[in-house]
Amino acid sequence: MKFQPMASHFIDGKYVESAGGEEIDVFYPATGEIIARLHAATPAVVEQALQSAMNAQKGWGAMTGTERGRVLRRAADILRARNYELSELETHDTGKPIQETLVADVSAGADALEYFGGLAGSLTGEYIPLSNGDFAFTTPEPLGVCVGIGAWNYPIQIACSKAAPALACGNTMIFKPSETTPLSALKLAEALMEAGAPSGVFNVVQGYGDVGAALVLDQRVAKVSLTGSVPTGRKVYAAAAQGMKHVTMELGGKSPLIVFDDADLEKSVSGAILGNFFSSGQVCSNGTRVFVQRGIKTAFLERLFSRLASAKIGDPMDPDVNFGPLISGRQVEIVKAYIAKGLAEGARLVYGGSQLDGPGFYLQPTVFTDVTDEMTIALEEIFGPVMSVLEFETEEEVVVRANATEFGLAAGVFTKDLVRAHRVAKDFEAGTCYINTYNVSPVEAPFGGSKLSGVGRENSKLALHHYTEMKTVYVSMNELRAPY
Ligand SMILES: NC(=O)c1ccc[n+]([C@@H]2O[C@H](COP(=O)([O-])OP(=O)(O)OC[C@H]3O[C@@H](n4cnc5c(N)ncnc54)[C@H](O)[C@@H]3O)[C@@H](O)[C@H]2O)c1
């Protein structure tokens, strides 16, 4: 098997196997063939990872930020130098077209390592003058051992988005990738080691939800950062609360994308395509509720259909292919059930909707019109290539409807009226908003959700606050009196 790693886990600077652990078969979504076979961590392997991360933390935390940053920046260079090889791996693990993974996965991970590596040396506290010459000062302290748990849609990017700020701040990390896409995090561990990270600073353990749960509950873990679905987020948040642990929750969404009559037609169609069909629709921040104002609806749909007709669906390793399979047969069944529900509830299927014949987990890009706010396909996260088009008339109406969701991950607006664009963005109840663009998430800007979509932010300087705890030291320069 071409993508079989040396062993399932990476702990204390080396590959570790757990032959007795439950089997994890890794499939290439384009063919369904098994490309690697791993084993879930046993309790002994989880313990080994915890010990290693605990032992490494003191030394790593005692290094200067500049020294830690140098390691992260070297790791970024290593990932970039191996971009093709790692993108090929990511394409086989996820089924995403190589033209996507070459530009949006490994390189985004490298960006995170570079960015947080650059910031590591700038972590400082403040001096606070108090009365009569007394003062206090603060120092941002590492939290200790952090656990990262990943989803399957952006495996290496998620691993880097968690590891880079955690390590920059002097923490160590145990990362558990999704059982569906376990391969590339091991390559990140290799790159960090080669870049000079001491053994135990970044460990990878494989497993299903029970392995994640064991890590979250362990008393030695100070923080948990999860990327996953809302139901898993609820469980992980509740378990972390028992130990009063810090959490970051990057969860699901059902984001609105509003297209006003005056929008640039080509741009808004591009936004809707990027916000619904990139990664075959398996993107958390997708704008799957596309609200189109009545006056532009016919032109918008005509242009959308003609551009969708030019999508090249096929072998993700073909550099011309821009629409690949879904992650698994199970995911195809989930999405097909939503398509059936859309039809049963009266939505009009106007594009796609079918599974492709042959091997692999392919589903056509799918568009529904005549969707109303209370339909299941307008309320629930589908996590597949299904766009719902809803019609609206006024700005006041559409903002209320856009916000009428339990999620709050992202939201977008397309219009040439910039005053209106800013007004609408101000009113959006979402963590990440877009004006005349969609689904960009550069490392420099905060990314994350409100409401059920999450807690905390990844990317940007804000992420450093989620991996440090401020210590305050009061210093008296005067005599100290007590009442008795
Ligand atoms: N907000 C974001 O940044 C973001 C990014 C990507 C994906 N997502 C979301 O992720 C979801 C898709 O990914 P998924 O299907 O892998 O999600 P999932 O919730 O099924 O699994 C996520 C991870 O949690 C682990 N897990 C499951 N049960 C656990 C438990 N009890 N304790 C600890 N860990 C446990 C899984 O093994 C996996 O590694 C979608 O809802 C999507 O919106 C969010």
UniProtKB/TrEMBL annotation:
EC number: 1.2.1.8
Aldehyde dehydrogenase domain sequence ranges: 15-473
Signal peptide: none
Biological processes annotated in GO: glycine betaine biosynthetic process from choline
Keyword Lyase: no
Active site: residue positions: 250
Metal-binding found in the keyword field: yes
Catalytic EC class: oxidoreductase
GO molecular function, one term: metal ion binding
Keywords, sorted A to Z: Metal-binding, NAD, Oxidation, Oxidoreductase, Potassium
Family the UniProt entry places it in: Belongs to the aldehyde dehydrogenase family.
Name of this chain's protein: Betaine-aldehyde dehydrogenase
UniProt source species: Aminobacter anthyllidis
Lineage start: Bacteria, Pseudomonadati, Pseudomonadota, Alphaproteobacteria, Hyphomicrobiales
Gene coding for it: betB
